[in-house]
Amino acid sequence: MSNSLSYYSCSKHFQGYPCCHRQWKHTGHCRFVHGYSRSFTFWFRAKELDQYGFVVDFSDLHFLEEKLRNHFDHTFLVNSDDPLIEHWEILHKQGALDLRVMENVGMEFTSKLVWEWANSILLKRDEGRTCCNRVEARENDFNSACFESIPEWFSV
Asked: Which one of 3, 39, 115, 144 has the fewest CB atoms closer than 10 angstroms to its CB?
């Protein structure tokens, strides 16, 4: 392509990840354990299409889907600084919940985290031909957060 600002793009949506969390520092009702069925939309870029004419082959995103399912499907997400973490760990060991400790369970941080996951997979698989430039993490039909960035290793 002659224009260095030109690129191809596509998006992929993943849904159906019921999990719960709490924002223990929040002074309102978000401090209580509550849950959503999270969903994620990823936007991908490529400088050139692959041998099939795709930016990314959606059928080849199973590694990303597995990572999402493992982390968010029927799990309890807790901030690493939650003062009740020892109690959550005991409940996890007793089989009452499937604990995932995160730096921050909010949708803003989650969108950045899964953006990093996608780009780690794409860099290894496509050797810099593709990247994920945007992720929307949605907790329901009304609330979502996005993270947008072009990885340093990807140049358009």
From this structure: 3
